[in-house]
């Protein structure tokens, strides 16, 4: 997807230089540094919102989507609607200097905002854990928080290296299935070419869907593969375990279905490292 960047000039505060009278003559006081106004930002993606707060720039956020639910204080920020159908009128009314979008933000919405004269930034890091570094550094540059972004990236990188080393010490990799969607609506998981599927491997698991592309899977394949561990959203764990569709799976019988915080592994943001940590802990049992 092409990045579309429209340059917008940031308005600077005018600083008046008072005239001082010294020894019968007029002399200008030394010029003070111009003060730059904080940018007004609208985030159209949960991962971008999390990055903004992690960089200590939460006070710049004037608008966010309904999906932006972390950190808790983001609830105080005005919502502009759903991530897939935000209100153009609500966004324009907030008079943002920058609108930052990422995964799932509709291209046509961004195009309409650009036509309205607004600065829209699209950030999609490569489909890997390291890709989040690009997103963090880009947002940091937008908000004048380059140093904070560098610090955050370095901290995440150090923790990531430790987790990879720990995963490498596992005697064996447990086979894993991530039930993103299930039941009568079909079975959906993270294929080998997906960002989430790769995280499972990094954390020390063997993704049984590594040989497929995209998100679609089948119950027949799950039964055939008989994964040792099944991951599911924490709010849906009991639903999955009690479903007659999956009662014969060994992971269900052996009590190895784990409810996880899906936001931590699906959002390309600063909490990804926590997502790997939760998977690492499960796979090492």
Number of domains: 2
Distance between the termini: 40 Å
Which sequence of strands runs across the widest sheet?
4-3-5-6
- Number of DSSP E strands: 12
Main structural class: alpha/beta
Helix content: 25-40%
- How much beta, percentage-wise? 5-15%
**Average pLDDT reading:** 86
String of helices and strands: EEEHEHEHEHHEEHEEHEHHEHH
Shape estimate: globular
Low-confidence runs of at least 5 consecutive residues: 1-35
**CATH A-level architecture of the largest domain:** 3-Layer(aba) Sandwich
CATH class of the largest domain: Alpha Beta
**What is the fold-level CATH name, i.e. the topology of the largest domain?**
Rossmann fold
How does the major sheet shape up? 4 strands, parallel
SSE blueprint:
Blueprint: E1 19-22, E2 25-28, E3 41-43, H1 46-54, E4 61-63, H2 88-93, E5 98-101, H3 107-115, E6 120-122, H4 131-142, H5 146-168, E7 175-179, E8 187-188, H6 195-202, E9 206-207, E10 216-217, H7 219-225, E11 229-233, H8 237-242, H9 250-253, E12 257-260, H10 263-266, H11 272-283
Helix pairs in contact: 4-5, 5-11
